[in-house]
Structures are given as C-alpha cells and as structure tokens.
Design goal:
about 550 residues; 3 domains; about 55% helix; binds protoporphyrin IX containing FE; two-stranded antiparallel ribbon
C-alpha cells in the first residue's frame, strides 16, 4: 500500500478517533466525574443517563402527572406542575443534582442557600447560559445580560418603571382597563374567558406605557413572541444529539429562526418611526417612555452609555414579553381565586369602594390597598414559579395549600417569619424583578375597576389545569361569569359601615375603613375614638367611642 493510500485511510481514522474520544469525554467522562464529586460531598440525585441525562424521566413524569385531576380548593400544584422536582426533593433531599441532557443542574431549595445564590453578593453565580432557542427569545435583553451591559440597561429600566415615570403611566393603564370594560358591556351574566381578556389588556398596557403604541401596533410582535416562547418551553427537556443537531436543523429551530427575524423586523419598524419623526423635525426627541429612553441610548455619543442594536432589540422583546405574560397570569389567577372565595372578593370590593368610591383608582389609594395586597401576595404564593419554597409546609405550616390571604395581614416579613427565601415571587437581590411595582400597580387598577362594577363567579365549564410555560398558565383559559353590581349594592357598601358607627351598642363592630374625610367628620362631632395601626397608612381601624371591643373582626387583630 502506497504512503498516500495509507494517509487517505489513516487521517480520517485519526479524526474519527479524536472525535470519538472528545465525544466520550464530554458525554460520559465529565458527567460521571461531576456526579462522583457531588456524591462524595453528600449531593445525591437521579443518576446520569448517557446523552439524555434525566430528560426522558422528566417527560414521562410530567405526562403521568398531567392526567391527574386537581382540586380547586387545595392548591397542591407542586406534584402536578413539577413532578420531577417534587419527587426528587423527597427522595434525595432539599438540594440534589439532576441532568438536563449532558448539563448538570444543582437544584437547591434550602432557604439559606437560595438567599445566598440570589443575593449573589460575591458575584460568584453567573446567569446560566441560554439555550440556542432561549437566546432567540430574549436575546441581549435585561434578563440575560451581565456586567456593564446589565448596569446600563437596568438603570434605564429602573428609571422607566419606578417613581414619577410609573405614576405618569397610571392614566394610560386606567384608559386601557376602560377599553376592556367597554368590551364587556352586554356580556353580563354570560360566560367569558377572562384569561384571554387579560391577555389583550396587558398587551395594550405595556404597548401604551412602554412603547407609546397601541396593542394593534404590537400585535404581530406579541403573536410571534407567543409562538417563539411555546417552542422554547417545548424544547426545554429535549436532548440535543451532538453532531447531528449541528448538521440538521429541527422544524422548531427553523421556525424559531424565522420568528426571531420577524420580531426583529417589527421592532426595528417601531424604532424607525421614532427616528423618522426626529429626522423630519416632527418631534424634538425620541420620547419620554421606555422606548424613547432606549432609542436615545442607542444614539448616545458616549460609547460607554450607548446601546448596541442587538441590546436595543433584545430589550424591546424582553419588555413586550415580560410586561404582558406575567401580569396576564397574575390577573387571571387572582380573578379565579376571588371567584371561588367570594368572602375575599367581597372584602376586596369593600376596600375598593372605601378607597375610591365610584371613582377611578388614584396613586395614593392604590398604594394603600391592604386587603388587595394580601390577596395578590397569596395568589403569587400559589402560582409564582418558586413552587418548592412556596409550598413547603415546614416554612408555612399545615395550611400551606389553602387560600388564606390573612397570613399576609401583617406584611410579608411576619407571614414568612422574617425568612426572605420563603416568599420571593419577584426574585431577590440585585437581579430581582424590575417590573414589580409596575405589575402590581397595573393589577390593582384592573382589579379595582372590575370589582367596582362586577361580581364574579366561576363557570361550571372551567377545567382546572395549570401548566408551566413562561409562568403558570391555565391550559384551558379561565371561564367566569361577571354579574353587574346593582347600584343599590354599591350604596350599601357605604351605608353598612355608617350604620355600625351610629350603633355603638352593636356588639360585633366590624373593622371599618373610611376615607380621611369620613373619619374627620365623625371625629369632629366626638362620635369617634380612633385606634390607629401602622400610621400613616389608611384604612384605619375605627371604633365607636368607649366601645368595649378592642378586637378587629376583619383582620383578627387585638388592638390595645
Ligand atoms: C406578576 C408579575 C411578575 C412576576 C411574578 C415577575 C417575576 C420576576 C422574577 C422572579 C424575576 C427574577 C428572575 C431571576 O432571578 O432570574 C424577574 C426579573 C425581571 N422581570 Fe419580572 N415579574 C413580573 C412582572 C414583570 C413586568 C411587568 C416586567 C416588565 C415591565 C418585568 C420585567 C422583568 C425583567 C426585565 C427582569 C430581569 C431583571 C434583571 O435581571 O435585572 N417583570 N421577574
């Protein structure tokens, strides 16, 4: 055999051998070594399986769990929504090692460790690298970036979604809710999928407040983002086979690339409109909303402050997606829970009338909605993604699975026994949610305006099936019946309270909350003695003068 022939055979053989060694090193040796080291430190977990890791097990467990019926009153979503984590936590302890394909995942649910990782004070825990598909969804948006880029982008987002900027958004939120309520006219008593309604509302709100456009303008972006996020979620536990995935693109990958390009083009179109207005002299700046700030930063002459085109597009995608999906879920689940727990619906309605009467919500009142805050916290405890900790009976007690907003009556710190890691629906530390106040403000406005007009009951057609997508979603929507509140009933909310004040003899005085004006009126004529908790917050606990009861029947507090 000639030397040339030998080379022709040997060279490919060498390549093949090196490739094989590298493959076995990456897909066998490294995982087994990591597993061994972790095991020797006491971290156990389901054993690594060649190439697939534990993905097949996860898929099987999820499929099995999804067939089990779920209770509407005991919110034990953990075993259904994350059956693999639930099962492995019980088998291997609070911290365990599992395998997403060849990627080792250390799952931690010990509160102290969770706090340490999320606070990340030593900057020791970088954000995980996104998957190929994941990077198409959020690109270089705030959720994904690190270091100087994060500082730059976080500063802009902080400015846009807090303080005065947020206060200035309130009229646009109210106007968007009014549009939704107009749509509801004539639907009274009929079945309605409120989850879909809130999808339109939240899309409209983020479009108007952050991007200065209507839902219609952003509609294409929302539709494409929705499709793209469904593809990303569908592929979280899909194993990528080495080499083959590089040579052959799956249908999902091809579609995600098209969607990625489509979204980018639409975002660029919206940005270009702003730039054109400045270029033609129609506007003297790019605008005061979030998009305006971003375009401004994209044109910044100072290179350190400037955003790249990739950053700009990623940031728009992130806020379109995060601004809509999250609040959609929060509103949907809160309405579902209030439709089931009518006593809490009534308490929330009373508070809304006491705070706003028939008027639209205003910033000062929104900040003082105590009952509504308790209800939203309890909803987030049930549906936020921190499922393991939010469902831990050791942290919350035996009633952990029940809907009990009263556990938040004295604030989050008291409810969690000052354990920050027991309840953190918006994350912890520097990377916690930048949209938290925006989200809760929007939800409070929408809920207040609905409660002022409607009572809500759950339709018998509703099928309870929460599924984990970007957040926890109701797989079949939320079918509700909305009944118009009678004018007389609205009046009664005020009159019942007044009656109790004029009847100091009545034994069971409820904890009544009045507007400042009402209270001053009764104080002036000497009919009232005030017991005030938590000044300067309203509502106050108000008791008739000399009343022997010093117990508030609403929040079950003894006040001395
Ligand atoms: C109920 C509503 C919401 C919930 C439960 C929620 C939850 C969270 C959580 C848990 C994180 C931390 C993620 C991590 O540690 O990696 C986060 C981050 C973030 N959220 Fe939200 N969010 C909500 C609403 C919003 C809204 C309305 C926006 C935008 C307007 C938004 C934008 C963001 C962004 C950009 C980040 C990344 C922050 C950073 O890394 O600096 N979120 N959110």
């Amino acid at each position: 055999m000639s030397v040339l022939m030998k080379l022709v055979i040997l060279v490919p053989c060498c390549f093949f051998l090196v490739g094989l060694i590298k493959f076995l090193y990456d897909y066998l040796w490294t995982p087994l070594r990591i597993q061994h080291v972790m095991n020797s430190q006491g971290i156990k977990g389901p054993p690594y399986r060649f190439i697939h890791g534990n993905n097949d097990q996860v898929t099987r467990m999820k499929k099995e769990a999804s067939t089990k019926p779920m209770s509407l009153t005991r919110h034990e979503i953990f075993p259904t929504v994350q059956p693999h984590i639930y099962s492995w936590l019980n088998t291997y302890g609070k911290n365990y090692l599992s395998w997403n394909g060849v990627q080792a995942e250390l799952v931690i649910s010990e509160p102290e460790l969770v706090k340490e990782v999320l606070k990340n004070s030593e900057k020791a825990f970088p954000k995980p690298k996104p998957t190929l598909l994941g990077s198409k969804l959020l690109g270089k948006g705030l959720v994904m970036v690190e270091a100087e880029n994060w500082v730059k982008q976080r500063k802009l987002a902080n400015f846009a979604f807090h303080g005065e900027s947020l206060k200035n958004m309130i009229p646009a939120v109210v106007a968007s809710v009014e549009t939704m309520l107009k749509r509801w006219k004539g639907q009274e008593g009929k079945e309605m999928d409120v989850y879909q309604e809130f999808r339109l509302l939240t899309a409209e709100v983020i479009s108007r407040t952050a991007f200065g456009s209507s839902y219609l303008e952003g509609e294409k972006i929302f539709t494409m983002l929705n499709k793209l996020s469904t593809i990303v979620i569908r592929n979280i536990f899909t194993t990528r086979i080495p080499f083959i995935s590089k040579l052959w693109k799956t249908a999902d990958l091809v579609e995600s690339e098209e969607l990625h390009k489509g979204i980018q083009d639409c975002v660029m179109e919206i940005i270009k409109k702003r730039e054109d207005k400045v270029a033609s002299g129609e506007a003297d700046g790019f605008g005061n909303d979030f998009l305006g700030l971003l375009v401004d930063a994209y044109h910044d002459l100072d290179e350190k402050k400037r955003l790249s085109l990739e950053d700009l597009v990623g940031e728009c995608k992130t806020f379109y997606l995060a601004g809509q999906e999250t609040v959609n879920s929060l509103l949907g689940w809160t309405v579902l829970l209030l439709s089931i727990h009518e006593d809490w619906q009534e308490k929330a309605r009373r508070e809304v009338f006491e705070m706003f009467g028939n008027q639209n919500p205003h910033p000062e009142g929104i900040a003082r909605l105590k009952t509504m805050t308790m209800i939203m916290n309890e909803t987030l405890k049930i549906v936020a993604l921190n499922i393991a900790l939010h469902n831990d009976p050791q942290l919350w007690g035996d009633d952990v699975h029940l809907f009990k907003p009263e556990r938040f009556a004295e604030g989050i710190a008291k409810a969690t026994n000052h354990n920050a890691a027991a309840f953190f629906p918006f994350g912890l530390g520097a990377r916690s949610c930048v949209g938290m106040t925006f989200a809760t403000t929007e939800a409070k406005i929408a809920l207040s305006m609905i409660l002022q007009r409607y009572t809500m009951t759950l339709s018998p057609a509703y099928v309870h099936k929460p599924v984990l997508l970007i957040g926890l979603k109701p797989q079949h929507g939320i079918q509700d019946h909305l009944h118009r509140l009678q004018q007389g009933a609205i009046q009664n909310h005020h009159q019942r309270d007044l009656h109790q004040l004029h009847n100091p003899a009545s034994k069971k005085v409820e904890c009544v909350a009045f507007s400042e004006v009402d209270v001053l009126k009764f104080l002036l004529v000497g009919q009232l003695h005030l017991v005030v908790q938590g000044l300067p917050h309203w509502p106050l606990h108000v008791f008739p003068h000399d009343h022997p009861l010093q117990h508030c029947f609403q929040c079950h507090d003894w006040i001395g």
